[in-house]
Amino acid sequence: MTPAQAVFATSPYPLGGIWTALCLGTAIDRFGPERALSCHYVIGTGFIALIAFASMPYVLLLAVIFLAGLTIIGSQNGAVGTCGKLYPARMRTSGTKLLPGRPVLWAQNQLGLDLGQCC
After folding, report:
1. What is the DSSP string of 37-62?
2. What is residue 100's predicted lDDT score, i.e. its pLDDT?
3. Nearest C-alpha neighbor of 75 from the set 100, 111, 104, 98
4. Segment 46-55, tens digit of pLDDT
5. Which letter does DSSP use for residue 113 in this model?
6. Does 78 lie in the same domain as 102?
7. Are 59 and 78 within one domain?
8. Which domain holds residue 119?
9. Both 63 and 96 in a single domain?
10. Same domain, 100 and 80
């Protein structure tokens, strides 16, 4: 793969995140945020493993990178979007802050641990 192809291969990842809004919102409404988001993350983990461990043609690699963005970035956006449903009004700011970059702290927050100002 040439350097130009490698740079271009990074483009489908964020594009996949944009396309997720069309399907993930419907899945969240139909199956609930917990089930839809966890399913998306598990499927995304498979795509990331495919990128890391499988040798594939360039066009197929682009498709898998797009699907990884569809599941991983889309799930992060979907999780932020469902904060209004998951958190009471007094906790929404903390919940939104913890979701994208701090999944462990988010899980602690979900378990009811008060982290206060340490985050």
Report:
1. HHHHHHHHHHHHHHHHH----HHHHH
2. 56
3. 100
4. 998 998 898 8
5. -
6. no
7. yes
8. 89-119
9. no
10. no
Whole-number Å distance between alpha carbons of 74 and 44: 10
Domains in the chain, number: 2
Q: In terms of domains, do 95 and 80 share one?
A: no
> pTM of whole model > 0.85?
no
Q: Which two tokens stand for residue 111?
A: 């378990």
DSSP 8-state assignment for residue 119? -
Tell me the pLDDT tens digit for each residue of 13-59. Answer: 887 777 787 788 888 888 888 888 888 888 888 998 998 898 899 99
Is residue 67 located within the same domain as residue 117? no
Pick left, alpha or beta for residue 2 (phi over 0 → left; psi -120 to 50 → alpha; otherwise beta): beta
Q: What are 70's two structure tokens?
A: 């569809």
CB half-sphere exposure, 109, CA atoms < 13 A: 23
Among residues 2, 108, 5, the alpha carbon closest in space to that of 65 is found at: 5
Domain presence at residue 94: yes
Q: Tell me, yes or no, whether 64 lies in a domain.
A: yes
Provide CB contacts within 8 A for 98, sequence distance 6+. 105, 106, 109, 119
Name the token pair of 87.
């958190």
